[in-house]
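From the shared-data thread, chain only:
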Amino acid sequence: MTRRLPAIVLAATVIASVIASAETELPHQLDGVQQDDRRGVQLDLDLIFTDEDGHDHRLGDYLSSGKPMLLTLNYLMCQMLCTETLNGLVEGLRGLEWSPGNEFQLVTVSIDPREKPDLAFEKRRAYLTELGRDNATWHFLTGTQPVIEALAAQVGFNFRYDRETDQFAHPPTILFISPDGKVMQYLFGKVFKPRDLKYALMDASEGKVGSTFDQLVWSCFHYDELTGKYTPFAFGIMRLGGAATVLTLGTILFVLWRRERARSLLGLTPHPSPGEQLS
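Structure, as tokens:
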């Protein structure tokens, strides 16, 4: 054991130095760029933004319908991460049977105060065309720097502007807001599965959207904070299996009862044989 210890210590030292080197080599533009957990935080619904048509609205106006909100913070001139994130969102929404504007509200806020409604209008038209859903709505909002920074701080969206490249560094996050304006859930990455979008929206609405079957299946998944996705858990699957068993048995018993009742009404109930009568 004593002979192996130096080798183990050496290996640990090398690994630690590699990790430290990787950390020190991170671009300074990414310092502090991250998504903080702000679930449960109440948003300021009086923050004023300008929509794609040039009209000012309170943030709360987009929650007045009582539906949850899927919120993204991006900048519209971004050709890299923002585009990949929104394209991934569109792809996920295509596989979701719910449409923005019906079961939930979809809002994108620009984090660049230099961007104006005319650009928001063009982006809105382009992404709605890409989504390809009739009667779907997607709001693209712009705002002043203090209002943008206030919203970003409330939802835990930490971003930085780099003057050298004239670009924004930010986390690839989409957020889910309850109808009363609380941060309820978030997903991050560039690929969003329809299942994850559905369950996050159900979390945001506290189960008020979706069918009874959706809610039953939803109860079998839990949110993994490390991956930012929904994964099944054993107890939920057992509960779903038990419910399926009860439903199957109930269906079989109901069919048998209906069959016997029909036979009885038609006079087809078998009469006892003479031997059975004597006994």
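The chain is about 40% helix and 20% strand.
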